[in-house]
Amino acid sequence: MAVLTGAGVSAESGVPTFRGEDGLWRNYRAEDLATPYAFRRDPELVWEWYNWRRGLIGPCKPNAAHHTLVEMESRFEDFTLITQNVDGLHRLAGSRNLVELHGNIWRMRCTQGCRSGWEDRSDTLEIPPHCPDCGALARPDVVWFGESLPARALEEAFAAAGHCQVMLVVGTSAVVQPAASLPLVALQRGAYVVEVNPHPTQLSEVVDEVVREPAAVALPRWWQDWLAEGNRQAGLAKRG
């Protein structure tokens, strides 16, 4: 089984949207700050914005959808959770076989490349932070506008989409590439694809099943229905 999640899952935990009109901070848009150019020009400003975001996300807790996905992972021998979210809530809930396509706001990496992927959830983060090994400036370990997604994460995501028998697309409009291609790859390979989203998307007309409810409500119910089918699905559950 493979699962693709988006902002809709996090919104139910209270994670705010940081783009559009509601995402303004000091008259800056996310698109103005989440770029390599903005970081080169004013790293302190960019880090102040990320620290503000971290402060808003920090109190948020995983919801029923996050916990249901953890339970799913424990039942399948072959399970991959692919997320477009950077809030770290899937990992906090206990998901392990996790591909964070856009990175994680709680991680950072050295701008000189000597160290990557260390996490700091401190409330007293130095602004801007520096690499503990070489002292160079550190940057958020997230994918900015104008940057490519990590090659390894993409490879893992497309591999999971290509060989799964069931794929859930949860809380995402699935219009941003390359993540938007993952459900299509699964469909082309013959997977049963389920969309969980309270709003119609471009995927709605082509998937096998649509659940028109928020993820925290729909996903636990869908999973319980799946388990209730018992022996009919046992073979799929073993193979993923």
Q: How are the secondary structure elements laid out?
A:
Elements: E1 2-5, H1 7-11, H2 30-33, H3 36-41, H4 43-57, H5 64-75, E2 80-83, H6 89-93, E3 98-100, E4 103-110, E5 116-119, E6 138-142, H7 151-163, E7 166-170, H8 181-188, E8 192-196, E9 209-211, H9 215-228, H10 231-239
Parallel strand pairs: 1-2, 1-7, 2-3, 7-8, 8-9
Antiparallel strand pairs: 4-5, 4-6
Helix pairs in contact: 5-9, 7-8
For the record, what CATH class of the largest domain applies?
Answer: Alpha Beta
Amino-to-carboxy terminus distance: 4 Å
Order of helices and strands: EHHHHHEHEEEEHEHEEHH
Topology-level CATH name of the largest domain: Rossmann fold
Provide the CATH superfamily of the largest domain: TPP-binding domain
Number of domains: 2
Number of strands: 9
Number of helices: 10
Which ranges are low-confidence, i.e. pLDDT below 50, for 5 or more consecutive residues?
Answer: none
Globally, the shape reads elongated
- Binned, the helix content reads 25-40%
The largest pleated sheet is described as:
6 strands, parallel
Strand content: 15-25%
User: Numbering strands along the chain, what is their spatial order in the largest sheet?
Assistant: 3-2-1-7-8-9
Shape-level CATH architecture of the largest domain: 3-Layer(aba) Sandwich
Q: What class would the helix/strand composition place it in?
A: alpha/beta
Mean pLDDT, nearest integer?
Answer: 90
Radius of gyration (Å)? 19 Å
